């Protein structure tokens, strides 16, 4: 395994886990820093060209990130080290759901894949690639990066890494470098962690109460009342009623009610959504 001064790659937001915002987009990572550290890059490669590389990381969604419902991935991020390439080369990113044991054990089911062309402009950056995948509730995520040897000496890269996460959470499969099957970095004497993140949203389950995840403000209200609902929840109907139960005729537009025409008093907000009905007492000042 060749790297200018080192090998390795990974990311950390657990096992202490920091990444949930129910109903909102989050980034899950195992790195305490997203800094690309020079000399920590890794790949199975010669000094001028790469070989076949499969790199892996497993995210324990429930145990490390508190994500207990299904999780919808929208983007995959990965750090790229030095790049030499006249025309660019493909990098494939795969996302699997995984259950039945810790990786490389258990059963992995491919849920989404994306391919991006890496060029010299990507050197020493973290790239973000749109990738759609749904991970069932209770499963872990295995995130894989695949680099295929093109048989030339014209394309070269290593993957960015740092020392700012828990070691031993990345795996590499690279037969040319003695890892015929997914092998833990620590087994190979590597302490780096790859910069591999996933971005997405937790899909709210039936047990999630819409009253706890929606925001209604200000209350008392002046001329505007904001109703913020997580983006993965569908709003079917939103109305404001007066104290006698009469519909005021106001409607929710882009997350707000224009309440400037309402008289001072007490009103009832009723918002029917795909996650239940939000009911709240509103005071117009």
Structure description:
The protein has 285 residues and is mainly beta. It folds into two domains: 25-202, Jelly Rolls, CATH 2.60.120; 210-284, Immunoglobulins (Immunoglobulin-like, Sandwich), CATH 2.60.40.10. The chain is built from two helices and 20 strands. It has helices at residues 61-65, 210-213; strands spanning 25-28, 53-59, 71-84, 89-99, 107-118, 125-135, 140-147, 156-159, 161-162, 170-174, 179-184, 193-194, 196-202, 215-217, 224-228, 235-242, 247-251, 256-258, 265-273, 276-284. The strands form five sheets. A six-stranded antiparallel beta sheet has the order 5-4-7-2-10-11. Strands 1, 3, 6, 8 and 13 form a five-stranded antiparallel beta sheet that branches. The longest helix is centred in the N-terminal third of the chain and has 5 residues, at 61-65. The radius of gyration is 24 Å and the shape is elongated. The relative contact order is 0.21. Mean pLDDT is 88; it is low at 1-23.
Distance between the termini: 68 Å
Beta strands, count = 20
Number of helices: 2
Q: In CATH terms, what is the architecture of the largest domain?
A: Sandwich
Q: β content, as a range? A: over 45%
How many strands, what sense, and barrel or not for the largest sheet?
Answer: 6 strands, antiparallel
Q: Shape, please?
A: elongated
Query: What value does the average pLDDT take?
Result: 88
Could you estimate the helical fraction of the residues in percent?
Answer: under 10%
Q: Radius of gyration in whole Å, from Cα?
A: 24 Å
Q: What multimeric state do the chains show?
A: single chain
Order of helices and strands: EEHEEEEEEEEEEEHEEEEEEE
Strand order of the largest sheet: 5-4-7-2-10-11
Low-confidence region ranges? 1-23
Please state the structural category.
mainly beta
